[in-house]
Write a structure and sequence with these properties.
The longest helix has 34 residues. It is built from eleven helices and nine strands. The chain starts with a strand and ends with a helix. It is elongated and about 80 Å long. The chain is an alpha+beta fold. Strands 4-3-2-1-8-9 form a six-stranded antiparallel sheet, with helices on one face. A three-stranded antiparallel sheet has the order 5-7-6. It has two domains: 107 residues, Winged helix-like DNA-binding domain superfamily/Winged helix DNA-binding domain (Arc Repressor Mutant, subunit A), CATH 1.10.10.10; 224 residues, no CATH class.
Length: 352
Amino acid sequence: MDPTIYRFGGFELDSTERQLRRDGAEVALNARYLDALILLVGAQGQLVTKDRFMDAVWRGIPVTDEALTQCIRTLRRTLGDDAGDPRFIATVPKFGYRFVGAIEGEGTEARAPAAPSAPQPQTHNLTWDMGATGTAGAVAAGVVGGLTYGVLGATLAVPAQSGALSFVLVLACLTIGVAAIGGGAVAFGVAAAAQRSGVGSPLTIVGGTLAGLIVGAVAKLLGIDAFTLLLGRAPEGITGAPEGLALGTAVGLAYWITARRAGSTKRHAGLAGMVLGAAAGLIIALLGGRLLAGSVDVLTQTMDGARLDLGRIGALLGETGFGLRSRIATSVAEGALFGGFTAAGLWRGRAG
């Protein structure tokens, strides 16, 4: 390879001696990751596809995309790089990676990255990618929960089975809408923090917490105002800022824990989200808060002539009315669904 020594950002990469040095001291890097760095630097400014990495670095050994993701993550950490604002390694979404740092080769003038033949994105838009896939995950949770509540609502209607299709559609649409709004806010909050501070930054927890708090408070305020204007009175105790804060924190924490663990996958993120979301739902119920089912029960008690009686859920759990057991069971289930699907969606959209 000519030249054999590349200098960039205080580093020296010697492709012949197979060493990465900084300020004269060797930087520890395993053989495969060093191969990947040599490949990237040697193709400076050009797209290196995932298939090319697999052929040149793993040499036909079957591995998952996560192995490449972990490799790039380690290289970025070693070089002090950030996926959201790359100085050296930029992600080309869905295709591969490109070395974007200025390189000085041995015996040559410093040279800037080669300009691509056509405009191509060199940075991964974490805010959009993670926010969009996280929102999609929350919508998926809403679909599952909405259909479940819709079918359950049809069987709990008064009289039973009256307007069954209407119950399914109305409750499904309500659940999907709530999940999309809340999940979208939390997902974009986490994604914005990742874009600004890095995909593994603890500020992603703060992003989820603040977004959940704000959307919960605004949604409750608008809901109370709407009921007051339309009906002259508003229900007390519907879901709001505390519930949004708890779920937003659970999602942000699940994402952060997964991002800090080497070799994590979307499945790990989803599992962490389910566990922490369920825990958040339990805490909400024990502290007297309400998620969707609890809020619907409050509404049915407030509105005269309501045809939905969620107190029948309590009967199934051995209590009278929609009591603590019912709130715990539904809150835990809702929290697990929301946390699991949203965290998995965030992980799917994160940068490599």
